[in-house]
Amino acid sequence: xxxxAKVVRAEARYEVRRWKHDCGRHQKLGLSSQLKSVAFxxxxxxxxxxxxxxxxxxxxxxxxALERKRQEDAKQAAEMADGWSLGLDKGALVSHKGKLWKxxxxxxxxQEYSLTLLAAVPHVGACSSADTTIVAWDEVxxxxxxxxxxxxxxxxxxxxxxxxxxxxxxxRAANDRAAKEAMQGGxxxxxxxxxxxxxxxxxxxxxxxxxxxxxxxxxxxxxxTRAYSVRMANSAIVQVIGARLISPVxxxxxxxxxxxxxxxxxxxxxxxxxxxxxxxxxxxxxGGFLDIPSG
Length: 295
Description:
By secondary structure, the chain is of the alpha+beta class. The protein is built from four helices and 13 strands. A five-stranded antiparallel beta sheet has the order 7-6-5-4-8, with no helix packed on it. A five-stranded antiparallel beta sheet has the order 12-11-10-9-13. The termini are far apart.
């Protein structure tokens, strides 16, 4: 006989410990504090310590009926939410390849989820590689097995999916516009350090591998050659790449349209500045100047 210590509804199981009256000789071994996992279907309630056993039994039967109804609702909600997998929050329960997982993170640029196997969540610090994975957003299915009212969560799930879908569409449009202007105008000048960029045109051949996304981060700006030092995503590789071969991306932007306009404005300002620089350099091309300021 055991006492329920925890109900794990998402996996339809209990975590139980041995009933203290049954510990007997095992108590010295500490078995009364050890937890055991038992499936819902394998558990049967008993009422040896109940003051009103029949009333408690009736309440247990009613609770069982409600839980079975909740599980059916969760199954129905999952079927109705098929494809609504964008915008899942960290900690959300999902199904992937027949197993239950928790969302550990979301990659804005790749629309990928980092997942942790549900059974491993209490021991995240000791997770093995088999307990974690990274998958595309459309490879997971929202699960409602841990929700009190699964069907009531459908509206919120659909809204979150549509909201993220609109955000992605807006960003893609801005990225496409930026890439088009970069291709036509010879690239953007004056991009801020730490800006995220992607390789365009012939720049795609500068990827570390064929599978690489072509995304990177600007580490330095080299105005004399109209180039940037770019650290490629998920890599220690830093390359000097001409401005005409990269374009800014806005996956992490909170105001996409505004940030795109700022990039265009900064480019115009920098282009005018470089024109003045060339005129100043031409003025002093003869050389032999005395007392040149330091720096």
